[in-house]
């Protein structure tokens, strides 16, 4: 179901709330939000049923939008092991949904997303949400926050080198800021690996 001309789906994984954002790339590098929201499950339901519900919804998203790629937030170690496990389960479901439909999928750390969208790996959620609203020319901040995060993840992938190449852009067409952000993302990824903060 891979469509090289299709939009990009961003996923902010979670079991209670799994955010998704779909952006379409236009000429000149401008992006448009064509859909966003959250997949929710009830904590009172059995975990297998909750995971099945998320998997079904993710599968439906891929079938509906026929994306050129999927971007998923990478799971990092957290102090709360229960939260980390929950996020990891939803992350895995997103990866499977992409693989099932032969959609290329890439994972990005939270800091990589902040760097790409705000130019600052330490930016807070409010700054990311405000920048997403501005970049996508939305009339209001996407709600809930999980949806805004998913849009930010999709934008991060949209600005990545592999998507530029797919669109036929040359490196000379990338702005100085784009290049700086890419270098910062690479440094951040290397730092995460050195600290052992990324779950393999």
Automatic annotation (TrEMBL):
Keywords: Cytoplasm, DNA damage, DNA recombination, DNA repair, DNA-binding, Endonuclease, Hydrolase, Magnesium, Metal-binding, Nuclease. Gene3D superfamilies: Ribonuclease H-like superfamily/Ribonuclease H. One of its GO terms (molecular function) is crossover junction DNA endonuclease activity. CDD domains: RuvC (cd16962). Pfam families: RuvC (PF02075). The keyword Hydrolase applies. GO terms for biological process: DNA recombination; DNA repair. PANTHER family: CROSSOVER JUNCTION ENDODEOXYRIBONUCLEASE RUVC. Belongs to the RuvC family. This is Unannotated protein. It comes from freshwater metagenome.
């Amino acid at each position: 179901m891979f469509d090289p001309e299709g939009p990009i789906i961003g996923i902010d994984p979670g079991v209670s709330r799994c955010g998704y954002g779909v952006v379409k790339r236009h000429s000149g590098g401008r992006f448009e939000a064509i859909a966003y929201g959250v997949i929710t499950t009830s904590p009172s339901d059995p975990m297998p049923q909750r995971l099945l519900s998320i998997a079904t919804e993710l599968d439906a998203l891929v079938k509906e939008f026929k994306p050129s790629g999927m971007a998923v937030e990478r799971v990092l170690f957290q102090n709360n092991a229960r939260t980390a496990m929950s996020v990891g389960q939803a992350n895995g479901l997103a990866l499977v949904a992409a693989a099932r439909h032969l959609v290329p999928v890439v994972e990005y750390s939270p800091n990589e997303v902040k760097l790409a969208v705000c130019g600052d790996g330490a930016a807070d959620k409010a700054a990311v949400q405000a920048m997403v609203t501005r970049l996508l020319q939305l009339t209001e901040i996407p709600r809930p926050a999980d949806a805004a995060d998913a849009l930010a993840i999709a934008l991060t992938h949209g600005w990545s080198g592999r998507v530029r190449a797919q669109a036929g852009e040359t490196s000379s067409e990338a702005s100085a800021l784009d290049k700086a952000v890419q270098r910062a993302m690479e440094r951040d990824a290397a730092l995460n690996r050195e600290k052992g903060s990324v779950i393999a």
